[in-house]
Amino acid sequence: MKSPPPLPQAVRRFFASRTTFEPHPEALKIAAHFLDIAASVLREANCSLPLSFTCTVNDNGSVSLLGTDLHTPASAYTPYFAPLTSGLNKAFPIGNSPWDIFKPAPNETQLLIHLVPLAFLPSDHDQLFPSLHESIRNARGVSILSAHYLYPDTESREQKNATSVVVTVAPPDAYAILPSINLISRNRRVEQMFSSSKNSQSKKCWKFGHIPTRCPSPLPV
């Protein structure tokens, strides 16, 4: 029998955010030492799960733990999220901006399917999911979790023949759909969707309005 495939990192990661998003002055110290503190907390709670992690702290002060065992999901540690959070706040007290309770990392991937003919799509937004779910499952054997129009305003689609739709899938299923899918008897281009806003800043060109993966600059600035 074959062993089960390794779980993606997103499935093995859980994190705690500060109540106020701001950098922590001891971020490097936390990253170096909290993984051992976490193992100690789990051992005291008689946890039988693997105790090996890597720890990172981002620019907002959020602390992430990534299980190094490739077959143990973050959800398995849910009963221990409260004592882990307590151990983190006790080891690195930060006054008025403590860490909230740990939670699993977001575990969904959004894909953008381009040039889908509007004539074959429902005008009612709520009917888009059932109309696409079966077709995508038949084409790739993947069950999507949700679906919505890239441009939800009905009037913005009135003068168009085709539109882009956004579907949500589990991360491992994204590779079954990328980079294209046969939908409504034609091959449709598919790409991963990255959210951005006017406040998003690219660390490649340093301009606002987009993220590095969508940066038009050919070279870093």
Description of the molecule:
This protein has 221 residues and is an alpha+beta fold. It has 2 domains: 96 residues, Alpha-Beta Plaits (2-Layer Sandwich); 84 residues, RRM (RNA recognition motif) domain (Alpha-Beta Plaits). Helix content is 24%, strand content 22%. It contains 5 helices and 9 strands. Strands 6-7-5-9-8 form a 5-stranded antiparallel beta sheet. A hairpin with a 2-residue loop joins strand 8 and strand 9. Helix 2 packs across helix 3. The radius of gyration is 21 Å and the shape is globular. The N and C termini lie far apart (51 Å). 19% of the residues are buried. The mean pLDDT is 87.
Layout of SSEs?
Elements: H1 9-12, E1 13-16, H2 27-44, E2 53-57, E3 63-67, H3 81-91, E4 103-104, E5 109-117, H4 128-140, E6 146-149, E7 162-169, H5 171-177, E8 180-183, E9 186-192
Antiparallel strand pairs: 1-3, 1-4, 2-3, 5-7, 5-9, 6-7, 8-9
Helix pairs in contact: 2-3
Summarize the structure.
The chain has 221 residues and is of the alpha+beta class. It has helices at 9-12, 27-44, 81-91, 128-140, 171-177; strands spanning 13-16, 53-57, 63-67, 103-104, 109-117, 146-149, 162-169, 180-183, 186-192. 19% of the residues are buried.
